[in-house]
Amino acid sequence: MVPPLIALEEHFFSQAVLAGSADSYSEQLKHIPGLIDKLADVGDLRLKSMDVGKVSLQIVSHAPGTMSASQCRSANDQLAEAVKNNPDRFAGFAVLPVSQPAECAAELTRCVKELDFVGALIENHAADGTYFDGSAYLPMFQAAQDLDVPIYLHPTWPTQDLMSLLYTGDNIPRAASISLSSSAFGWHSDVAVHVLRLFAAGLFDRLPRLKIIIGHMGEMLPFMLERIMQLSPRWGTRQRDFKTVWDENIWITTSGDWSVNPMACILKNTKLDHVLYSVDYPFARNEDGLKFMEELEQSGLVSVEQLEMIAHGNAERLLRVKHKKRWD
User: Fold this and answer.
1) Can you tell me the distance from the alpha carbon of 110 to that of 54, in angstroms, rounded to the nearest whole number?
2) Over 80: is that where the pLDDT of 147 sits?
3) Which of 57, 137, 287, 299: CA 20 to 30 A from 107?
4) Per-residue pLDDT reduced to its tens digit, 243-262
5) Residue 20's pLDDT band (boundaries 50, 70, 90)?
6) Mean pLDDT within 134-152
7) How far apart are CA 121 and CA 98, in angstroms?
8) What is the rounded CA–CA span in Å between residue 206 and residue 48?
9) Percent of the chain at pLDDT above 70?
């Protein structure tokens, strides 16, 4: 029987975003029934879906979308109220104004110390395409290390320049361009490149206790891990090589990737205590996540104890949260 589940890439839309435009979600809106209602809800609708999928605790985070510092603050306050109303079922990841890097450290600190959030989930780059390997973002990462909370790097949409360069063409249907640039492929390769940029910039030498989470079975990195280990020494002298960083600074989740095939790879080259269950609700279904865990249980790839680690134990240790058993 699948153990109780803790899921930590689970999204909502704040009132600040609902008042604006959701045009960037056009593909998802076409294919996921009731998406806006599910994103807007941090209450009964979400709880019912969690129960169907045997999710005991959900770490809720804001869905991707460019937000100002004031919008982030409002969204975090709204989420904190929802967590307060259901503390046994919800915990919070902060959203940070990554397009205003000078504001990020203070908001993360406020959310952890005043709102009891367990970390942050942020977009993978700023609105102008800037990644976070520059000095402007060092205070954000320093705050995360000092507070001993993880930062979850979540995919976001490419800039128009990147969209034009890689994902559009006369022979490519618009729907394919949108999908390729986002959830079908581009999002995941983009997060992988970002992690490698952070390593190449020496961030993990400066902040050796920094904790980074990435989703979707490791955003392609487990499959390429040995290749990266082979070639990354050419990038310059590092105190800590990439395998050390992978083992000590990077956690990965299952979010929305329902196949035991990538898990088989992960179990060969990734520390088991750095592998976490997640769903990617409401873009993915809690029922599908539960089915995946049942298939993993039956696969013979993990023991009972290892399945419990992935299901909830690793998240409890990383985030200092605790599930409450709700089902026999």
Assistant:
1) 31
2) yes
3) 57
4) 999 999 999 999 999 999 99
5) low
6) 98
7) 11
8) 44
9) 95
For residue 117, the Cα-to-chain-centroid distance in whole angstroms is 15
Confidence class of residue 304 from pLDDT cuts 50, 70 and 90? very high
For the record, the structure tokens of 151 come out as 């930062």
Q: What are phi and psi of 110, to 5 degrees?
A: -60, -45
Domains within the chain, CATH numbers bracketed: 5-319 (3.20.20.140)
The whole-angstrom separation of Cα 244 and Cα 226 is 12
Give Cα separations from 77 to 54, 71, 89 (angstroms): 27, 10, 17
Which residue's structure tokens are 């088989």?
264
**pLDDT, position 22:** 58
Give CA–CA dist 90/85, Å, rounded. 9
**Whole-number pLDDT of residue 181:** 87
Tokens of 232: 């990354």
Distance of CA 82 to the CA centre of its chain: 20
Q: Is the pLDDT confidence value at 21 over 70? A: no
The pLDDT value given to residue 182 = 86
Going from the C-alpha of 281 to that of each of 11, 121, 157, the distances in angstroms are: 6, 14, 18
Q: Which two tokens stand for residue 76?
A: 């975090």
Tokens of 53: 């999928």
Alpha carbons 26 and 133: distance in angstroms, whole number? 30
